[in-house]
Amino acid sequence: MTSQLNSIPQVSTIYYKETGVIWRLSNYFLEYIPFDHTNLVFCCIGTDRSTGDALGPMTGSFLTQLVSFPFEIVGTLDNPLHALNLEETTNILYDSPDKPFIVAIDACLGNANNIGEIIIHPGPLYPGKAVKKDLPPIGEISIKAIVNIGGFMEYNVLQSTRLNLTFEMGKVISRSLLLAWHRYNLKNNSNYNTNKN
Question: What's the predicted TM-score (pTM) here?
Fold first, then answer.
């Protein structure tokens, strides 16, 4: 597992409206995410009470609707993973006898010219950092979506973020994850058939 993390790029970034974004993002996910891990978990962090911070649970809801995406999803619009339950949930996940590989997904704030970018990098997310909350880090891989401008009145900025942006970015992330999973399966089946022949 360590060798895989060492062989992937430190940070990959893509704008959610770029041409071919779902295919290109799925390329990144194939590089970063070990789809063969026995306990792969997607933790989608945020709350449905804030349009900017709804990206995580919205993505989680999209993923749970994809019947061919077989992995555990923690954090949906119906059952969000947020500041009040994050530590307890993280402890439960990491107490599992089969240690999980967690992919953490969350909204974040950034510069005005970076709004709409999706960032993937190895290592944990630090949820609540934008609004000065001290929450435990989570994840072996982080997926962050820049939904608005940071640096001033962050809580209000998240509240006034356009829902359409979080909706569209969540849709792109979930579809790209599904495509990456299908591509991983196709490659494995192809390799299996080649070896068999």
Answer: 0.90
